[in-house]
Design brief:
The chain starts with 5 loop residues before the first helix and ends with a helix. The strands form seven sheets. It has a six-stranded antiparallel β-sheet with strand order 20-19-18-17-22-21. It has a five-stranded antiparallel β-sheet with strand order 6-5-4-1-7. A three-stranded antiparallel β-sheet has the order 11-8-14, with helices on one face. It is an alpha+beta fold. It is built from nine helices and 22 strands.
Length: about 450
């Protein structure tokens, strides 16, 4: 796998951390739309045969071709689905593809308003929330003493769905705690005068999405130490809620998975390996990473030593008999403090947790060797999107402390030895000098 040198990578990462750039609006964009369904499929062509990815409720899209009124697809660019457009400069763009017109509301056709009109991507003044569970109900009212019914549900949401909150609340809204008020677009229409509606979601299903959207991916500093048990980590706890999800190539959604298993005509849901990592980083770290596994590796910091891999870092695989193109990604979940087993989360036939030993044939993640090493028939790579963790900093401090202590001891011992040697030399010189005087 060819990547920039360590120096260039470090320079790029500095740029990634400090850049505050937005994606360019595609020059051929003719309208800005928003996904109004739980999720919609993004296909590679108008035949709808190859699924590239999935967009979630309220994701924005640039419409680049509307085709005729009889066509069922828009050609679009999805800015929330990051792809690398230039691997040398590490710049990103949105994913191009085709989506059903029935799932999109057109918000504006004025290009000058494209970025400011997207409520979940280019927003600077609004607070965003993100769903942290599966099949989250979105209601048309707050439910107090009178419980909500199915008729009160606008739609149900996949984990990882972003929505802007409403900052100004009525006195009736304030009186019922435990709810978040959001502003969303629903239905499907090409009418650009369509306005968002107010909706309500229980606070237990969401968390604040705190990232400021940038063209380059910023670093995120870990706050939890790896020495804690693997179940103490938020990424593990969220990841365990995804167990059993069906593998869907191009999948990136969780809505109605049980119904999908029972009814082949239901909305297609599921994840592939990079869709899983993409969603987890979005939910757990408020962090957007590229959509595909190979781009996730190229955009990560692979200069870290194997000893620097920590919880949340990504382990990448490619076929050992083919080129080094990355085709699978897993999330490192940490260590069981009792059994000392180490765990990975991956989407294979279903989303599952597997030990490092069972997957790669080594006891610990520290035994991976070097980048590109072949283990259990895979070429193994790793990468990180994080700043050096607190345990790395402590290790450096400990090493420097040991160097200082042993260095001080060495200097002190050397001074004693030198003093002793000098004293012996002086005594010998005095003895020889006295001997010569007497003779």
């Amino acid at each position: 796998m060819t990547k920039p040198s360590s120096f260039l990578l470090a320079l790029l990462l500095c740029i990634l951390c400090s850049a505050s750039l937005q994606q360019e609006v595609p020059t051929n964009a003719i309208a800005l739309g928003i996904v109004s369904r739980t999720h919609t499929n993004l296909y590679s062509s108008t035949t709808g045969n190859v699924l590239l990815s999935q967009l979630l409720f309220q994701d924005c899209v640039y419409i680049t071709n509307e085709y005729s009124s009889t066509d069922i697809y828009y050609e679009i660019n999805a800015p929330t689905q990051l792809t690398i457009t230039n691997s040398k400069s590490m710049t990103f763009g949105g994913l191009n593809g085709y989506v059903s017109k029935e799932d999109i509301i057109i918000i504006t056709r004025e290009q000058a308003k494209f970025q400011s009109s997207c409520p979940t991507f280019y927003t600077k003044n609004s607070r965003l929330i993100i769903t942290t569970e599966n099949n989250v109900p979105l209601y048309n009212k707050k439910c107090g003493k009178a419980p909500c019914t199915k008729d009160d549900i606008i739609t149900e949401l996949s984990i990882g769905t972003l929505m802007p909150t409403v900052t100004q609340q009525t006195s009736a809204d304030v009186n019922i705690a435990g709810w978040e008020i959001v502003s969303v677009y629903v239905g499907n229409t090409t009418n650009v005068n369509t306005l968002p509606v107010t909706a309500y979601i229980p606070s237990t299903y969401i968390t604040t999405f705190s990232e400021i959207t940038t063209k380059k991916i910023p670093a995120f500093k870990r706050t939890v130490q790896d020495t804690q048990n693997w179940r103490d980590h938020e990424i593990t706890n969220i990841g365990l809620t995804m167990l059993g999800w069906e593998l869907l190539n191009g999948g990136r959604s969780s809505y109605n998975l049980l119904a999908v298993a029972k009814d082949a005509t239901s909305i297609i849901s599921g994840v592939d390996s990079s869709g899983l990592s993409n969603l987890l980083y979005l939910v757990v770290f408020s962090k957007r990473i590229p959509r595909f596994a190979n781009d996730q590796y190229l955009a990560s910091d692979s200069s870290i030593p194997v000893s620097g891999i920590h919880v949340g870092d990504l382990i990448f695989l490619s076929n050992s008999t083919s080129s080094s193109y990355i085709n699978h990604v897993m999330i490192y979940l940490g260590i069981n403090s009792e059994t000392r087993d180490e765990y990975l989360l991956e989407a294979l036939d279903t989303t599952r947790v597997i030990t490092v030993k069972d997957k790669l044939g080594v006891q610990s993640i520290r035994d991976l060797g070097v980048q590109g090493n072949v283990l259990n028939g895979y070429k193994v790579y790793w990468g990180s999107y994080f700043e050096r963790s607190i345990q790395d900093s402590r290790l450096i401090i400990e090493i420097l402390l040991y160097v200082f202590i042993f260095g001080t001891i060495f200097i002190a011992c050397s001074a004693i030895v030198i003093k002793h040697v000098f004293k012996r030399i002086k005594q010998q010189w005095k003895g020889r000098h006295a001997y010569r005087l007497t003779n």
